[in-house]
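Re: folding output
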Amino acid sequence: MPIGWVLLVGSVIACDKGKKEDAKSETKAVATAAATAAAAATASASASASATAKATAEAADSAAPASSANAGRSAVPVGDEWDNVGEVTVKGSSALHCETKMLREWLRVSCRGKNDTGGTPTWVEVVRGNRPGNVYTFASGDVTSLVVAFVEGVRVEALFSWSDKSHKLVVRWDKGAPKPTAFGEFEGASSPLADKGDTNTSPAKHVCVCTKKLHPEDTSDCDKDLSDFAGDPDCERSYGSDCQKLLECSRGEPGTFPKCLAGFRNDGAIGRCYKECEGADDCPSGVTCSDGWGDHKVCMPD
């Protein structure tokens, strides 16, 4: 073969090899800079359901640092460390399809898949007790996750949202009290551990407490009978710290409707939050895509 041809072929091979090496370097850099996005992409591939769950769980772990910022804390568990421990009790987690695990002092609550009403996870936000080095959140690829240091004195409240509703998770261990047998509770979620009188953290209970606070003459027993009180998770999320507005919202007073999450809008006589829709496929089972109060459609219970 002529020397010219040899040099030309060698140049093409070297160029192609260089491009492949550059592509490998770029892929590695992107994966390092955006591990969460890469994990979400992996979750959307054609892997099995169990592989998808593991990939998204590992993405959630990547949001937490390898070591804690607080002295005395162990490193935040990552990856396969969570696979070797069983689940712990968090009231309401089963109905919402949330996995609850405890490793050393760290509690992880991860929600994935459809909840009891057909909604999928969209977002998680810490609304109380968000101390750096103690609380971490993740939300992507239909997975929401919270990792919190479950130690004496902790009180963390996080709002978990799905495509059709939201529930507040309360994680609490009062100082001086024995370690709780239940590590948290999703307010308003169905739980086999709750009896008819176990409504201490429900939105209806909050409405009852606020009613007695603003109207001391009220003789209602908020620990036993809440039949006269209508709690709403969206009112609770919007005005939970303002008793006056919470009561106005629960009554459906104009001007104090709940602040709806993205993809939802106020509708109906008392302005509750309903998911926007275009057809039946946009609504979970038992809910109909109906004409709203205006030029739009929303998912209304049958």
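--- second protein (sequence, then structure) ---
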Amino acid sequence: MTNLLGTTGAADTSSDSFLSNRKLTRGIGYGLSALVVLFLLMDGVMKLMAMDIVMQTMGELGWPNSQMLARGLGLLLFVCVGLYCAPRTSVLGAVLLTGYLGGAIATHVRVGNPLFSHDLFGVYLGLFVWGGLYLREPRLRALFPLRAAI
């Protein structure tokens, strides 16, 4: 009898495993990536428009209340997201987004914001960035396999 993943044994590492189902794996990967991209694009638009909430929050986080800074961060975010969306530069985009999110994490830690809702939010987004890329990019899965080759 087979389980939900179509495998027969608990430790089955054959080609019937979850990650070898290319269509399903890529679909989930693109779904995760789409969620994080849509969120980051919304954030970038808000920064480019230098909305009042962005300016207020930047001041609360200890950053200068500068529309140029907000717009610069929005533009930087758009560049990183664009690189992440393009298949040839997706890994570079993920690396740059990781750095961008690391800066956000450092800012929240510096001002003493709550751990799970603020400090780790960049980590959550980073997991979606890399998780989506891992599932949609077979070369990345080959570089970092979840299990040891036998």
